[in-house]
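WP5 quarterly update. Target: Serine/threonine-protein kinase RIO3. Source organism: Astatotilapia calliptera. Length: 501 aa.
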Amino acid sequence: PSPCTTPWGSAAPAAPACSLAEVMSEQLAKQLDEENAVFPALSDPAAELLPDEAPDTTSDLMLAQMLQMQFDREFDDQLRREEKKFNGDSKVSISFENYRMVHPYDDSDSSGDEVDWQDTRHDPYRADKPQTTPRKGFTGKGKNITTKHDEVTCGRKNTARMDNFAPEVHVGDGLGMDLKLSNQVFNSLKRHCYSEQRRSARLHEKKEHSTAEQAVDPRTRLLMYKMVNAGVLENINGCISTGKESVVFHADGGSLEEQPVPDEVVLKVFKTTLNEFKNRDRYIKDDYRFKDRFSKLNPRKIIRLWAEKEMHNLGRMKKAEIPCPEVVLLKKHILVMSFIGKDHVPAPKLKDAMLNSEDLKNAYYQVLHVMQQLYQECNLVHADLSEYNMLWHEGKVWLIDVSQSVEPTHPHGLEFLFRDCRNVSTFFQKRGVSEAMSTYDLFNAVTGLNIPVGAEDEAEFMAEIVALEKRNEDHIQKRGKKTFPVTSEDGGPPLEPDADD
Ligand code: ADP
Ligand code: MG
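Structure tokens (predicted):
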């Protein structure tokens, strides 16, 4: 490209021509200077808001907000035109003010002394004494001429304008004691107030972001915004949980390929910081479904495997009609699924649910049944089953958090199952469910195995489990069972083909 073209097209148009006489006019220069000094750069909203920070255009949201702001401003202009047309010459006029979008910052036509309309709207001094200086800039005649720059008038006006400072600023009763504030003092007060407001806004923003968006990196945020842009989600509301390995957000569902998405969904964002996943490698690299792919992948892609694994496991569970979230969409390391809960309130974890003894007993039998279904129908072991990963919703126990779930033939699958059984037995026994079986009996009931329970001796029981696992593995090796494409087996929504990043 030629040197004067920019990525946005050719060079900016030349500034509007003006006569040499105007350029040379000292009078004009001084006047302009004065006007600018009263309220610096009021005509530029961005400059007014953030004089010391360039506007941030790095994210889609920011761009969208900027476009929205532009749109709102145009809307307001249109409204103003309509208001004018509506009122015509009528003595009684109707104000459309409350319908305006852009509020305090729209003052593109304000000049030095014509304050922004936030000021004019509630100017008590003006309301009492409607002796505004007319457009020509002065009142009176001859010696008694009062210009708009008159010190006394201006001073009183400035005092009155302090009422428009943020409500937390205590301005006192300046009007009552006829205080006259010079432009200089007024301006520095105003600047101070604005910077205070900005500071508190920034603090606020930080607080909000720290609970929600700050939990994810910019890449992830972009992916999330893209889902909103594509209409899959209507809105992303806030964070339900931040764990070591994932962050869960609540969102309003939109539609996906003309299919409605559930009204309420969650986004489970698998954390792309790898540390926490390192010690979970064994859940995936020994899972023959993922084994071959695992060894070829870079760490970022391994994180995506976790999301993918959760999707496939949920798919199997849905088929067996186990109460669990329904998968909506998988995009890289973000899994969108139905929300278990109502009206933005997530269902409580079993550990937090207030259950009476009847409900508890009921819940126990549900868990037993679900564990059997999971093992026998889905060919899965949850591998992180506890009162933390079961939700109580509409009288049912819902299973969640199955990214680490494996098939029973996983080299450590039965050990994981044993641990699940221990968590479940311990929880229900502690809560006083007398029907709750021992860990060993539960294990046998889930697997249909009949490992003898020797005097509550865990070591013996474990030895038996490990021996079983070994035999399983030998068997698999003899048959030469290889990885196979999980997509065709498990169904579920198609994976997003994505370019390598
Ligand atoms: P982690 O691996 O971080 O434990 P989970 O899948 O267990 O991830 O989700 C963390 C928390 O988020 C859960 O304890 C639960 O409170 C909430 N949560 C997760 N999925 C859902 C869902 N589909 N509906 C409602 N709440 C959910
Ligand atoms: Mg969990």
